[in-house]
Amino acid sequence: MLEARQQLLSEIAEFVLANDLEVTSGTLTIALRLCCGEEPSLERRIARRRSEGMPITSDWLQEITSDYSHGEEEMLNKLVERLETGINDFSRTTETARSATNDYNEALERHVDDIKSSDGDGPKLLSELAGYAQAMLERSRKAEAELRHAEEEAEGLRRNLERARRDAEFDFLTGLRNRRSFEVMLEEEYRSARANGEALSVAFCDIDRFKVINDTHGHAAGDRVLCVVAETLAKISDDKCHIARHGGEEFVMLFRGSSTVEAAEALDGARRALGARRLMNRRTGAPFGKVTFSGGVANVFAYDSPRAALSAADQALYMAKENGRDRIMLAEDCDSVETGVEESG
Questions:
Q1: Where is each GGDEF domain found (predicted)?
Q2: What is the pTM of this model?
C-alpha cells in the first residue's frame, strides 16, 4: 500500500514538473485524476496536443476541465443554500406555532383549575376563560396560516429541487444526459446487468475534425453540429441503450444486453446516417462538408471495473482516429477489427 501511494505521488510530481505546471489545488486535482486513470478523455486530448507540438499549460487544463464541474458545482451550491434557508424558515414557523399553542394551553389549564376550585367567582372566571380561548383561537388561526404558507414554500422548494436536479443531470445544449449523470447510470447498469447475467457494452464517440468546423464556421455553427450528432445518436437509443454528452465533442453510449459487435453495428448505422447528410451553415450558406464521427466500443465485463472499460473504449476510439477516422473499432481487437470505411477527402 505504501509503495502504491509513493508511486502515485511520483507520477503526479512527474506530470506537474514535466509540463512546468503551477502547483495549485486545481492542477494537483487534475494530475491526481489523470494518474488514477479517471480521465481517459483528457489523457487523449493531452496526447493529441503533444503530438501537435503544443504545450500543456495550467490555463489550458483549467479551460478544458472547467466545463465538467464548475457550472454544476455552482448550481448545486446555490441549491443547497436555498434548501437550507427554506428548512430554517419552516423550522422557525413551526416552532413559533408550537410555542403559541403551548402557552395558551397552559393558560387554559390554569383557568380550568381555578374554576374547579372557586366558590363564587365562577362567572368572572368563565368570562376570562372565554377571552383567553378567543385569543388562543385567533393566534392559532394565525399560526395555521403561517404553517400553510410554510408548507406552500416547502412544496415550491421541492419542485425547484427536482427541476434543479434534472438540470444538473442533463446537458443544456443537446438535452442529453451529462457526464456526471452517465457515470451514476453506468454504475447502476453495471450492477444490474451483472446480477442478471446480461451483456454490457460501452462506447466513446468523437466528432472528426470538430476544431476545423469551429475555426471555419464559428462556435454557433459548431453547436448546431453537436446537436445534429446528438440527435443522430439518440435515434438508436432506447430503454437499453443510453447516450450522454461526455464533454466537448465527445459522446458516450451504454448498450445493455448487446455484445460489442452488436453495439458496434448499431453505432455504425448512426455513423453512416450522419455521413449521408449534407449540413450547411445557416448564417453563411456555406456547406460544412461531410460531418463524421469515430467510435470505440468495449465489453464492460472484460475489465476490472466500469472505469477501466471506459478507458479501453476511449483507447479504441483513439485507434479509430489513428486509422483514418470515420469508423468504429472494438477494444478487444483494435489492430484488426474495424467497422466502416475510411473518410474521403
A1: 198-333
A2: 0.60
